[in-house]
Amino acid sequence: xxxxxxxxxxxxxxxxxxxxxxxxxxxxxxxxxxxxxxxxxxxxxxxxxxxxxxxxxxxxxxxxxxxxxxxxxxxxxxxxxxxxxxxxxxxxxxxxxxxxxxxxxxxxxxxxxxxxxxxxxxxxxxxxxxxxxxxxxxxxxxxxxxxxxxxxxxxxxxxxxxxxxxxxxxxxxxxxxxxxxxxxxxxxxxxxxxxxxxxxxxxxxxxxxxxxxxxxxxxxxxxxxxxxxxxxxxxxxxxxxxxxxxxxxxxxxxxxxxxxxxxxxxxxxxxxxxxxxxxxxxxxxxxxx
Length: 289
Prior knowledge:
alpha+beta, Arc Repressor Mutant, subunit A, 10 helices, disordered N terminus, single chain, Alpha-Beta Plaits, four-stranded antiparallel β-sheet, globular, about 10% strand
């Protein structure tokens, strides 16, 4: 699932790939906390102890003080609702984070979809940001990128995902840019650049492909021992996976055949399916002790 409020680009600063681009390494406390909550807490519908979250974050390379700060900030953001039980505190997921997981999980799982039924239509959005709304620039660009839009020419955003129009409508309304936006749905024509040039200009696919190659190589070296080693490898891998939709526009097969991103996503899905039962059983044991 996506990390709430994160807008920084993934390529070149992955939370899980070291600078040398080979091995899996700890991500930020914030992103790893979201991974734990989304993969281990959300499916159960049960609360999680502070001590459990700290233990898992420490196992992922996060210092205890930093882990507790991440938990406190998550609570301040409304992600989690506390309940004191004696000297301990347990946490239930707040409605905001549950909604993020519901929406984000669908986007993450769609990474492996070749999108072969694309009808050739584009959703175009033209936004002019007035000086009175200049602070909306960053969240607008982050929201459009998350929705799979590219920016082939200044001011114009294009996406083959016409079905995401409601998501864009909500984004534009939230940023109060309705009066400064025009959107259209249609096909490209012979006037101006063609679809291949739109793809080339709209997204930095070369950098994204290189990132995917590093991720694929790192995942291929994973061979954890049963128990906590598998749990921590699982969480690092999922933390990487949940960030990928931020930079992968999930272009259809017709525009981007044999895309490495789909192969990486399938590899992660297969490992996730293999490791999930044992990881969740171990989490239940830790959280219940």
